Amino acid sequence: MKFILVWVSILCTFLLQGQLFQKNDFSLSDSLDLSVKQSTRDTFKVNLGESFLFRPNRVRYQMASGISYSKQLGKLNFNLEPYILYEYPRTRPYYIHSDYPLGGGMVIGGKEKIYFRPLFQFNVTFLRYFFSGLCYGHRHYGDGYRSFLPSRQSPLYPWANLGVRLRNLLFDFSLAYWQQNLWDTLRHKFTVIQYVRWRPWKWLSLGFYESATWSVSKLRNMGAIELTYLQPFAFLRPIDYSMGSPANMFMAGLLQFRWKSYSFYMQVVLDEFYISEYKNELRYLFHPNDTTIHTGAWVNKQALQMGMKSFSLFGMKGLGLLMEVNIARPYTYSHSFPELSFSHQNQPVAHPLGANFFEAISWLGYAWRKNAWVSGISLVRIGLDASNTHVGQNILQPTSDGWLGYNIPVSYYGNHIAQGNHAKVLTFATYWMRKISLKNYPFRFYVGVCNKHSDFLYGKNKMFIVMGFLHHMSVPDFLNW
Predict the structure, then answer these.
(1) pTM here?
(2) Closest alpha carbon to 301 in 276, 270, 326, 337
(3) Can you name the residues that pair with 451 across neighbouring β-strands?
(4) One-letter-per-residue 3-state SS of 42-68
(5) Could you tell me which residues are beta bridge partners of residue 222?
(6) Contact, 28 vs 322, CB < 8 A?
(7) How far apart are CA 229 and CA 216, in angstroms?
(8) pLDDT digits 0-9 by tens, 315-344
């Protein structure tokens, strides 16, 4: 019966023009669903979902179809989750500067409307403490709704990892393959990631992230496999300096601590950091009338995240809350050579907004019996790039002279967050969800209202009604619609 449902669902995908909803870094409704338990046994599931979006003079229909299969043999674990995507009408968010499909995928039919996404992951544990794996999917770091490090908001890509677990200490070393289409030329690039997590106590978790991204280039004598960077247990930044800094380097610190039913988390990303420029910022705070102090250097490229979440707010089971603030300075994730930007398939690998923004997000929800109510609100202040300008939001633009000579001049001083074409976007979404059963197959029905107000997209409200059904799938992220 299950195999019949698989083929019927795939056939319906082509006939009804559907899409599998993009996986999110965080879903409050799934977190509040205490009845859902992750099983380590062998599983085979059919993933189905459909959604209707109603707006004046416009109806958007989406349908999801795929399977998920998990098999465990001793220390070996295999997960397969292929699905097909169709989006009509195809939409692109205002902050994405490329026509690539969100989430990537292999084009079927040549019209760039139907995509095949063969997610899979293979893991093995050996010698008790070591683990390794191969995957075509995402890497994810962080505990919040967003992440300034590789997240599930990016297109799919292949990667391999090798790590070790020693009680409260985890070390993970991975190699990922990304690509970028630059002026109709496909650029291949590779990223080495080192991640260390230490949990000295149950209530505290500390993390350190470091990565190096390089592209295949004869001019810079960089090949596909650079053994110099493939050295586990070694800091990548000194290695990059010794080679003349041909890679794009990132460092980040992560913090999470728990108190009762509350979890507080933080991310600090350092793309570039000049202490002398920060000293000027401090001097300006004490001497704001001194015109000889220059501030706002573009070379200081950092991002900060702070948040709190709870799934038993005030001790009430089923009552959840998430509050999060994300700030990214201009030109973060970009590079003088745009093929080295922190991107894959012309889309950010980390936060989908790119850089040069302030974002505040809040989710509130309550689950009881077979019902759940969830509301979310987000406020974004962002500075967008226009033609022949580069104010720091579009990470695909070069930030200084590159070897191709197509750079756009960038002001060294005077930069600030949300500079350029200032835009403010306020989004509100609320929905109710109910568990139902159809011939012993569990489904979730949801219906809700979303409203988006912006001061640059026609300067008016955009309200729409959403409703749909889900089977072994998460609710779409309405704040990103």
Answers:
(1) 0.89
(2) 270
(3) 428, 463
(4) CEEEEEEEEEEEEECCEEEEEEEEEEE
(5) 217
(6) yes
(7) 14
(8) 888 899 999 999 999 999 998 888 899 999
